[in-house]
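Schema walkthrough. Field components (list of strings):
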Amino acid sequence: MSTTTLEKQAGAPAPAVKPAGRARQPGERGPLGTVLLHAGLMAASMIAVAPVAWLVYLSLGPDKNDYLHPGAIAGKMSFANYGYVLRHTEFFSWFKSTMIVALGTTVVGVLLAATTGYAVSRMRFPGHKQLMWILLLTQAFPIAVLIVPMYQIFSDLGLIDSYWALILVNCTTAVPYSAWLLKGYFDTIPIEIDEAGRVDGLTPFGTFFRLILPLARPGLAVAAFYNFITAVAEVAFATTFMLDDSKYTFSVGLQTFVSEHDAEWNYMAATAVLIAIPVSLFFYLVQKNLVTGLTSGGTKG
Amino acid sequence: MTVAIDRATGKSRGDRVPRPGLGQRMKNSLQKYWYAYAMIAPVVIVLAVLVGYPLVRGFYITLTDANSLNSARTIGVNHIAATYKFVGLDNYKNILFGPLSYDRFWSHVIWTIVWTVACVTLHYTFGLGLALMLNQKLRGRTVYRVLLVLPWAVPTFVTVFSWRIMLADSGAINQILHALHLPQPQWLEDTFWQRFAAIMVNTWCGVPFMMLSLLGGLQSIDTTLYEAAKMDGANSWQRFRHVTLPGLRSVSSTVVLLGVIWTFNQFAIIFLLFGPTSAPDAQILVTWAYYLGFGQQPRDFAQSAAYGVLLLSIVTVFTSFYFRWLKRNDQLAV
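Field assembly_structure (string):
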């Protein structure tokens, strides 16, 4: 990893320091450069954290109009909102729905996609290119294309307001995405392993299930995490297809605090914090793999 | 059964065998590749059912005048059959050239383009700037990194509400502006400021992904290139211009494509920031299509689906041109 980079970018817009007099060693920076660098990063971090921190702060104010007088909250902080949300709202039903939908999507998406990822990574068959193109394009589908026909189909089947509807809809993105990502991961597994398996008399399926799949566990995990997080964060379909407020997922449930007539910002904030904490912890655990998965799947095509 | 497991195209070129008939060729290819087809079968079937069929049905809806009043529906125990009829391409004609086409379609097209270009430019610029800063040897770098990723870690549907509180008429941002004796715009009511706020929130949400991807790209650039450039007397700008930027090219082309697609299709931010029914002028095409289909009464399914088809065509055309362009510049190995 490079540490010998450009002192120039120190304070991104303004050229930080010009080398003065003596030639600097690679990776060295003038004291002014360091100060500007810290200042820039600190400012950016403040902006990144402020909205979230503000939400946490407001969730401690017991009254629904406290967000207008934030100064007053400091004097009367309490966890009352959290108690209310946990005891008197549908929080736990929402949690259950979210889990059912997210885990369902994850399992279906990864299981179905694994063999395809392997096939497109290792084999060249007629239709290979078209399949890759379709997998890529499906991820670019605007929700507007599918939402109306899906709504009608699910109404016909009586699946509106059922978890299955959401799981199936989420699979339209989860399946092609997982296949694409797993292809990227299989590409990194040396082909010699396959060849060894073949020489030892395994069928292509045997090679895949006995040799490659166990090796690909990290890749499967990343695909699973990503599907899980996307399914939790899905808004449009969940809002449209779930009608019964005990079946709402979090992304729908959170909206119910704010209607045209009334806005219970304090309860909204408390719920938001309760949702955000586990999701973001989970996210931090996997974020590094997520980025490499996303970009390498694309670049290595 | 042949083993076509290597990455080569299978056959060596040049051996000209007389081409067998179509039936024979299909049989041969099936014999040769049956395991490949067996492996892709689950995904192909699922996509055909979950994407292909709705797509065809959606396209059919756009050729009708379906809305929530004439579609099949069940009220209590009574089932009412669908009564909508075939109208040909009228929906498209109306959307693209009808009397209200500017207000209803073209204005949203322009705003969607502005939105996409502005957001992706901002994402990329801030992302690259922060990635360059994080790539320096620095005390507390990990802490900065963790903090800067926060907007991506917290789900969008949570953070948008936080922005909504802050941007409210007497919310935190206007209180700060008041304290600084600056004008306090009506962020969530005035069209211009609605658009401004939407871009701002989306930028805030989208920078971390760009930052992390570009940071990964920066770290994969060979350090000896910088040393060599230094030896040759390149100043820091020249090193940035001729070593860093070319080194980031393949990561950039991917993240920009992803960024454009995600931003163009971004639903949650605008939908949640303004609520389902307000701010008609700040809706981008995706949310506007949703509004037509589900946000108004009666729900206009046909128009909404037609918007969907138009959107998909735009995305498809853009993606294929982008790929062609990348291929010409040899930046992608698909």
